[in-house]
Structure to design on (777 residues):
């Protein structure tokens, strides 16, 4: 089972790397098509009917590869779950795989629901970086230390975090493209209004989940450590994340904060996610599980 | 007296009322602004981040000036000359600082005022929405649709209602020359925002209750076989029957558990096992497994051969030099107090060989070290007119004993918060309006429009609802035609 999980991980890595190549060529050929005025209206509906055949098929193969990567990753996590006997959420290797899983799930949702492929420009590099990082940390299945022996809370607390973080990667990608695509000047990118909307939708999905992550963490802290909140660096960092996204949700209705400044908040929020994620390396505290 | 700072919110768009002219009114108005909320949230985020990045004074040190100064010396190594300034600005104790609490208090005021301020308009949206929109509204709506049908306005309206219903929308009708309609879904979602915001206030109430009426003893140590009373709840005492540790073959710890007996006023009231993920609790007091360590059971007799000490000394502290575990024993009626030092774990310790402990005796008045002896198991050692004997090794358990009467309020607030957030963000309130205007030829114009904020989800929903309405209208029209043919 452990070996199967490792093979699936490698397969997923390869599929994702190939997907990145396909998406990049998709972007380049589409961009060229737009530049020569072949299809200036393409932004209206991405993957529209008048896209050059080669571009369309590159995009399609990219999507198929992402679905494959996602399936392999699901396998990697499932096999590991069976091999370890508990949710694969107990060390940085497992977190990283789960993080990428959540991100790909969010990406596929937005790609199918809103026809947005271009977000992959940023989403895939983040995923590849995460998978590469996973290769550098120990992947052995280590038995759970007493503090982690709560399989219900372990699974839910981390699984909810993964779902939220995946959506935050999407909102980050949307925010960066939003800032990049000033005055909608890059016709091969989705329109700003759409990117703004996608960023918001992703946060709408993830914000209640992040609240739940922090609360489940508090419940667990109460059970295992005796107090529900002890200003431990990791819990504090996740509170910062929650506050930044809370700020973003309020900023969207404040004059002068709509648009660009909100997008910066989304980027800051994702910065906080990454900081929290890797926080146990440099912050110490009760969450140091390696 | 100087007037309060000018209001930042769009005063231009709000009609100026006499209420705003006085300072209370202005303060109120400032507190209703979302901009203030945003500013506070971001400031609290920055403060929290500061508290995460900078070393914070541990709670165990905060109330002990000696320990605090020692901690501060350690911090100096990191922050150098800035240490004192940072300590003065409470940057090393952000979460108990006056300014952090000030921010939280302002946020609470902001939340309460916003809640009161928004209540009536949200209540109206939920419970008594406006049904009739003017034709201009439909002209200007960003998301809208128009159908011309050969049905009387009243029939058309009834059909539109059917369409709404089949799309999962409830609708309200207002008859008149033209029939006006309002349809919505998830209207209670709007109340979620109150749940979420007020749950934050409730959370704070729970936290404050915990601080005021609760307590926590992070260093409650009981040696195996011993019974100790809980210092902060004198009626309760705890006996450790047995402590057990289990380790995986690979090395990491597997399980720590303490078999405990709890006594209330001397009566046994509870017996059970506490382990890391399953604390025991009695009368709202939770006993959490926190740490453990070695015990040296020592017997002390005076010159006459009377027992003056015979119990386990928990080696729960660490020596200043090196990493040897140290325990303290009080010798009643003697001129000296004793310390027992164990061997450094996990390494060969030449000063304290395995199987022995070191006895250090200090004079009670001068606090000077007067005698050092090595105690081997079951061998008497004479010192300062006393006979010491190291009987055996044992273990102690370190419990975290916590009483927090606010914790249930905190859980309630947490539940309400998640509920509120899910209502607001996963089931957003969707509103649409329709107007069926009769035409001179006996038919009617049906116009549909959705609330005008930019929202992809709304547009998708509107498309679906419009499709349902159109289908209902088409079918009805065909039915009418067929019916007319029969006559």
């Amino acid at each position: 089972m452990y070996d199967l999980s490792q093979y699936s991980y490698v397969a997923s890595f390869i599929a994702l790397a190939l997907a990145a190549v396909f998406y990049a060529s998709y972007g380049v050929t589409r961009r060229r098509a737009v530049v020569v005025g072949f299809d200036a209206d393409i932004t209206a509906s991405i993957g529209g009917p008048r896209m050059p055949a080669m571009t369309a098929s590159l995009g399609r193969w990219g999507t198929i590869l992402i679905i494959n990567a996602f399936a392999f990753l699901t396998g990697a996590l499932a096999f590991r779950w069976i091999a370890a006997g508990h949710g694969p959420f107990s060390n940085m290797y497992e977190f990283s795989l789960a993080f990428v899983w959540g991100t790909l799930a969010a990406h596929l949702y937005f790609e199918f629901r809103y026809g947005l492929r271009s977000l992959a420009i940023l989403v895939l590099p983040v995923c590849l970086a995460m998978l590469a990082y996973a290769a550098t940390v120990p992947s052995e299945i280590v038995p759970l230390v007493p503090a982690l022996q709560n399989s219900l809370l372990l699974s839910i607390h981390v699984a909810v975090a993964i779902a939220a973080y995946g959506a935050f990667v999407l909102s980050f990608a949307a925010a960066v493209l939003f800032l990049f695509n000033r005055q909608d000047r890059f016709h091969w990118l989705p329109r700003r209004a759409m990117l703004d909307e996608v960023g918001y939708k992703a946060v709408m999905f993830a914000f209640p989940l992040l609240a739940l992550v922090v609360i489940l963490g508090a419940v667990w802290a109460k059970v295992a450590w005796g107090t529900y909140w002890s200003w431990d660096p990791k819990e504090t960092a996740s509170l910062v994340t929650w506050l930044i996204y809370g700020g973003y949700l309020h900023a969207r209705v404040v004059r002068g904060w709509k648009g660009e400044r909100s997008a910066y908040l989304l980027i800051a929020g994702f910065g906080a996610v990454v900081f929290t994620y890797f926080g146990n390396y440099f912050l110490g505290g009760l969450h140091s599980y390696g | 007296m100087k007037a309060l700072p000018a209001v930042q919110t769009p005063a231009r768009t709000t009609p100026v009322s006499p209420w705003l002219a006085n300072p209370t009114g202005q303060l109120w108005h400032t507190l209703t602004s979302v901009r203030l909320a945003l500013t506070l949230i971001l400031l609290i985020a920055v403060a929290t981040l500061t508290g995460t990045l900078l070393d914070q004074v541990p709670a165990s040190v905060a109330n002990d000036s000696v320990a605090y100064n020692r901690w501060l010396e350690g911090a100096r190594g990191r922050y150098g000359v800035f240490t004192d300034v940072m300590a003065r600005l409470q940057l090393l104790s952000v979460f108990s600082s006056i300014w952090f609490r000030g921010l939280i208090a302002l946020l609470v005021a902001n939340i309460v005022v916003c809640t009161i301020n928004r209540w009536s308009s949200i209540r109206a949206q939920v419970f008594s929405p406006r049904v009739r929109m003017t034709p201009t509204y439909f002209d200007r709506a960003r998301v809208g649709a128009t159908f011309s049908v050969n049905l009387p306005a009243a029939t058309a309206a009834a059909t539109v209602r059917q369409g709404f219903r089949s799309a999962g929308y409830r609708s309200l009708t207002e008859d008149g020359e033209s029939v006006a309609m309002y349809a919505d879904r998830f209207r209670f979602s709007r109340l979620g925002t109150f749940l979420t915001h007020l749950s934050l206030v409730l959370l704070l109430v729970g936290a404050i209750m915990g601080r005021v009426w609760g307590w926590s003893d992070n260093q409650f140590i009981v040696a195996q076989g011993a019974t100790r009373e809980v210092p902060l709840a004198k009626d309760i005492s705890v006996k450790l029957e047995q402590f057990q540790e289990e380790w995986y073959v690979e090395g990491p710890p597997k399980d720590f558990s303490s078999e405990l007996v709890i006594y209330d006023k001397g009566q046994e009231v509870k017996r059970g096992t506490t382990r890391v993920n399953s604390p025991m609790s009695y009368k709202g007091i939770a006993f959490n497994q926190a740490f453990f360590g070695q015990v040296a059971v020592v017997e002390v007799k005076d010159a006459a051969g009377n027992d003056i000490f015979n119990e386990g000394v928990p080696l729960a502290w660490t020596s200043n030099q090196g990493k040897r575990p140290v325990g303290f024993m009080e010798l009643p009626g003697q001129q000296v107090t004793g310390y027992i030092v164990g061997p450094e774990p996990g390494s060969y310790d030449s000063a304290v060989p395995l199987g022995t402990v070191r006895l250090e005796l200090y004079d009670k008045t001068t606090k000077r070290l007067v005698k050092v002896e090595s105690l081997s198991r079951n061998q008497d050692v004479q010192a300062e007119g006393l006979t010491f004997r190291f009987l055996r090794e044992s273990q102690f358990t370190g419990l975290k004993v916590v009483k927090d009467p606010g914790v249930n309020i905190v859980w309630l607030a947490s539940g309400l918060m998640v509920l509120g957030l899910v209502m607001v963000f996963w089931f957003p309130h969707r509103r649409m309006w329709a107007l069926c205007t009769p035409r001179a030829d006996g038919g009617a114009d049906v116009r549909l429009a959705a609330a005008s904020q930019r929202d992809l989800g709304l547009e998708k929903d509107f498309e679906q609802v419009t499709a349902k309405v159109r289908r209902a209208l088409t079918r009805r029209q065909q039915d009418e035609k067929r019916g007319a043919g029969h006559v």
Summary: Chain A touches chain B through 49 residues (CB under 8 Å). The helical segments of chain A are 2-35, 53-84, 92-114, 120-136, 151-180, 192-225, 233-251, 260-282. Confidence is low (pLDDT under 50) at residues 35-49 of chain A. DSSP finds eight helices and no strands in chain A.
